[in-house]
Specification:
Elements: E1 9-11, E2 14-16, E3 23-27, H1 35-48, E4 52-56, H2 60-72, E5 77-81, H3 85-93, E6 98-101, H4 109-122, E7 125-131, H5 144-161, E8 167-172, H6 176-189, E9 195-196, H7 204-220, E10 226-227, H8 237-249, E11 258-261, H9 272-282, E12 293-297, H10 302-306, E13 312-317, E14 321-326, E15 329-335, H11 339-351
Helix pairs in contact: 1-2, 1-8, 3-4, 5-6, 6-7, 7-8
Length: 352
């Protein structure tokens, strides 16, 4: 499946699908009626690399907050609507860039048709997002992948019948294999871009691992035009950072430096862990347009030999010294206490 073969769908100032990048999406936790808190959350996510932000709209008070948020946010906003699609109609009229509708929580079919008419009138993107936890009742006795697919297929047919083609699709499971299977089926059937994610992944290491395994396989297959890592967390910042780390590891996007480092052992000649954390902290706002790999190695065995492919690197040596190298060639030997500062200075000089 060629990712670039999908239809291109306008979403605010960006386009999803076609030859465009795989965009990073996050979802808010704050109640939109609390506009200031919601805005702070969006700003934090945006600083971490969020490019599309989704907001749940559970009631009419949320619409008032959304109106205020929309004045200050310049990345695409997606209104997440369940059950009461009249809220979706109002959100579209307020100028959201997309509205997400779950086929399993559509509720009133007449309201769905009115929403589709409004979406077409305003040329707003429509995301049809199915979920194993809320497939339509008539599909619940079927295999879960089949139920997800048929619920999406049915909704796409209704939207296309209204002349709507600015559609983004998603169908999420909590299970890794089901997630891979449903997205492979969607990719082979539809030309619409796909929002890829694994739903209700959980928290911490478990949630990250499940999400990265499923999405990594799909992205490697060329499936997925924007992604969200769904984690149980108080803020969307972590899921944004994980999404970027995944895209960078696959060579699909570049934003920050790629750090390679040894796992450390008894041969280490200093605190590798501290150096790695320090380098990441010092380069959090060092956004790049081309890939850059930096190595932190604990001894002469690993660096610069094993890390000779890195653009820049630091290898700890005896007598509390550190060797700075570029593409395997030693450029300077400095005291360990100033090694990071010297390394970062060299990096900045060569990317300007």
């Amino acid at each position: 499946m060629n990712r670039e073969a999908t239809r291109e769908v306008p979403l605010g100032k960006i386009k999803v699908g076609g030859k465009n990048p795989v965009w990073v999406e996050a979802m808010g936790r704050r109640y939109p009626a609390e506009a200031k808190e919601c805005l702070r959350e969006i700003v934090a996510a945006q600083e971490a690399g969020c490019e599309i932000f989704r907001i749940a709209i559970p009631d009419r008070d949320s619409l008032e907050g959304l109106k205020e948020v929309k004045k200050h946010v310049h990345i695409p906003l997606v209104a997440d609507i369940h059950f009461d699609l009249r809220l979706g109609i109002e959100a579209v009229l307020l100028g959201v860039d997309a509205v997400r509708v779950n086929p399993g929580t559509v509720g009133n079919k007449a309201d769905f048709e009115k929403l589709l008419e409004t979406v077409k009138l305003k040329n707003t993107a429509l995301r049809l997002g199915a979920n194993t936890g809320s497939v339509p009742p008539r599909f619940k006795n079927k295999d879960r992948v089949k139920a997800l697919f048929e619920s999406i297929e049915e909704s796409v047919g209704v939207a296309e019948g209204k002349g709507i083609h600015n559609i983004i699709l998603s169908a999420k499971s909590t299970d890794v294999e089901e997630t891979i299977s449903i997205y492979e089926k969607l990719a082979s059937t539809f030309s619409y871009p796909l929002h890829v994610g694994l739903t209700e992944a959980g928290s911490g290491l478990e949630g990250i691992t499940k999400s990265v395994v499923a999405l990594g396989i799909l992205l490697r297959e060329g499936i997925g035009n924007n992604i969200r890592i769904s984690l149980t967390a108080s803020q969307p910042v972590l899921e944004t950072r994980v999404a970027w780390a995944l895209l960078e590891s696959l060579g699909l996007r570049y934003r920050n430096i790629q750090i390679i480092s040894c796992p450390t052992c008894a041969r280490r000649r200093g605190n590798v862990v501290s150096l790695v954390h320090g380098l990441r902290r010092m380069t959090q706002t060092l956004w790049l347009e081309t890939p850059l790999t930096v190595a932190i190695m604990g001894c002469e065995v690993n660096g610069p030999g094993e890390a000779k492919g890195a653009d820049w690197g630091l290898a700890l040596s005896k007598n509390c010294k550190a060797v700075l190298f570029a593409k395997g060639e030693i450029v300077e030997v400095v005291p360990q206490e100033i090694a990071l500062t010297k390394l970062l200075q060299r990096i900045r000089e060569n990317i300007q």
